[in-house]
Amino acid sequence: MKKFSSIEDIEAPEGLIKLALDQKSNPHELSQLGKNKTLGLLFFNPSLRTRMSTQKAAMNLGMDVIVMNLNSDSWTLEFEDGSTMNSESQEHIREAAAVISQYCDIIGVRTFPSFNDREEDYSEVVLNGFVKHASVPIISLESATRHPLQSLADMMTIEEHKVKKKPKIVLSWVPHPKALPQAVANSFVEWAKEGDFDLVITHPNGFELEGSITNGVEVVSDQAEAFKDADFIYAKNWSSYEDYGKIGEDLNDWMISPERMAITNQGKFMHCLPVRRNVVVHDDVIDSQNSLVIEQAENRIYAAQAVLIKMLNDEN
Ligand code: SN0
Fold first, then answer.
1. What is the pLDDT of residues 96-142, one digit of tens each?
2. Is the CB of 258 under 6 A from ligand 1?
3. Residue 46 CB less than 6 A away from ligand 1
4. Considering 81, 133, 140, 221, which has the largest number of Cβ atoms within 10 A of its Cβ?
5. In degrees, to the nearest 5, what angle opens at C-alpha 78 toward C-alphas 9 and 52?
6. pTM for the complete prediction?
C-alpha cells in the first residue's frame, strides 16, 4: 500500500478491520517486521491520540519513529508550483518531501483545513503535496477532508460491540464553539456505508455534508426521531460545508444528553475525542457504561498497526 488517505485506497476494508482486530489480540506478533525501518510523523496541527497511538503501533512492529511538528519547529513550506518564494514560505514541498523520504521509510502527515477556500481544502493541497513529492508511502493522520485511521478504529469498535447482525448507527451533529473540519464525519460515513449497517445521519439545516459522500444515506432532521432504536450514537461536530466553515448558533439542544440517549436501544456512545464536556455531550453520557470513547482511542493503536503492516509488506 503506497497511500492511506481514504477508504478508496483500501482493496478490502473488511480484511483491514480483521487484521487490526487480530493485531489487538496479539500486538507483538510482528515485532520484527519493522526492524531498521523508520516512521516519520509530521504534524501541522495538534494531536494526542494520533501521535501516541501511531508511535505505539510503530514500536509494536519494531520500527523507529521520528516526530516533527512542522508548523513550530521547521521551515514554512510552500505548496504551489512555480511560485516566487520571496515572502513567508521558506522551503518548497518538492525538496522537503524528497528529503524526508531519505530519512523515513513511511511518512504520516496531519493537516487540518484552512476554512478559507473550500475547493482548496477539498483538493488536499498539503497531503497530496507529500503524496506527489515523497518517494515513500504516505499515511493520512487526518487531512483536510478525511480521518481514515479514526474510521478504521471506529469500525473495529462497532464490530466488537454490536449485538445484532445489522445494527442501527446514527451519526449526530453536535454543538461546538469553534469551526471544526468535516473530516471525521466524512470518513465515518464512507466507512460505515461499506459495512452492514442501518446508517442514519442527523444534523440541523445547513450542515449537510458533501453530497457524493452522503449519497444513498438516510438523513433525518429531527435528532430525537433519528435516535429511535439506535444501537450506536456517533457524535461529532462539523462546520458547514455549504456556508463553508460557518459554525452553528443557538443549537445547544443538539448536545447528547441522557434524555436523548434514553430514546435509543440502550445505544452505545461514540466520539473520536477530544471532546468538550457538557457542550458536545453531557458528563452522565460520556461517563456511563455505554460510552466507548476510551476503547475507540485504544483501537487507534491497532488501526495504525494494520496500515503499517500493509505498507511494510507492500500489500494492498
Ligand atoms: C479535530 C476535528 O477534526 O474535529 C480533531 C479530531 C480528531 N478536533 C478538534 O480540533 C477539536 C478542537 C477543540 O477546540 O475542541
1. 999 999 999 999 999 999 999 999 999 999 999 999 999 999 999 99
2. no
3. no
4. 140
5. 50
6. 0.98
